[in-house]
Amino acid sequence: MGCLISHLASKFAFFPPSPATYAVKKCDGGKLSAVSTAGSTPLPIGGDCNGSPSPSLDVLLLDTKRGNKIVAFYLRNPCARLTVLYSHGNAADLGQLFDLFVQLKANLRVNLMGYDYSGYGASTGKPSESNTYADIEAVYECLQTDYGVSQEDLILYGQSVGSGPTLHLAAKLPRLRGVVLHSAILSGLRVVCRVKFTFCCDIYKNEKKIRKVKCPVLVIHGTEDSVVNWFHGNGLWKVAKDPYEPLWVKGGGHCNLELYPDYIRHLCKFIQEMENITTATRLRKIRQNLHLNKKSKSCNKIAIKSSQLK
């Protein structure tokens, strides 16, 4: 029964575009270039091997601890103070998302790293929950070692199934700047079957993992999402430790929220506020939380003693 439940959840989770919408080529000097395969005339995405590579984009091939090689795009913005690590949904690859990445990089004034899961695009291997965790960990390690990005200057962004690896990593990074959950899921099975609890063999147990996330969490969800019902986003927002003002896009579906003006306005507001969070502010907030926890524990002890005296 457990294997059947896990299989059903996985069936929902992974629909890589076939064929992939881009290919990776090695240029003279070893630099990688990504070329779109959509349409009759291939168009360059990350520079052209016959011309000059794009100075604002790096195409990367990263090794994961599970033995796969995954493709990542790193887009630079010279005005950026923060970096966004974007984990995409279940039916897209980097070729389809490149234009969106360019727009987000410019409008939010951030550096942006996007990647394809194992089995997606030009990444090797097969998609699975475990592989997506290894994938995002490899990308984060690359951001640290190759680009000098610390968790204090990083915002994790998870769209749909991408909320799984996003919350997996966010739960491990206590000094992360922020998290964005876009059309996120409570768990894999709860998308397939509207149940009020999470099975032990379920995949992407986001409702449990978000409780470990210490940074501000912005939830964005469409009220008319027919793929991942709005109650998923609302449920995650309610249990977040540090919930940011959510964006419920009235009439928004699962794959069109970027078309609504409120989407980019609210996202810009969130990014700007995250930029203005200083180390002193973060430390003060942590101390306040610790004080509240100690006060709560003290009250509990008094209540226990009182009940014992009775």
Describe the structure in your own words:
This protein has nine helices and ten strands. Strand 5 (83-87), helix 2 (94-108) and strand 6 (111-115) form a beta-alpha-beta unit. Strands 3-4-6-5-7-8-9-10 form an eight-stranded mixed β-sheet, sandwiched between helices. Helix 3 (129-147) packs across helix 4 (163-170). Mean pLDDT is 87; it is low at 1-5. It has helices at residues 2-13, 94-108, 129-147, 163-170, 189-192, 206-209, 230-239, 261-276, 279-309; strands spanning 22-26, 32-36, 57-63, 69-75, 83-87, 111-115, 154-159, 178-182, 217-222, 247-249. It is globular. The protein is an alpha/beta fold and 310 residues long. The protein has one domain (1-21, 56-306): Rossmann fold (3-Layer(aba) Sandwich).
Considering the chains and any ligands shown, give keywords for the structure.
alpha/beta, Rossmann fold, eight-stranded mixed sheet, 9 helices, 10 strands, globular, disordered N terminus
Question: Which strand order does the major sheet show?
Answer: 3-4-6-5-7-8-9-10
Low-confidence stretches: 1-5
The number of helices is: 9
Assign the structural class, choosing from mainly alpha, mainly beta, alpha/beta, alpha+beta, or little secondary structure.
alpha/beta
Helix content: 25-40%
* CATH architecture verdict: 3-Layer(aba) Sandwich
Q: From the structure provided, what is the oligomeric state, counting identical versus distinct chains?
A: single chain
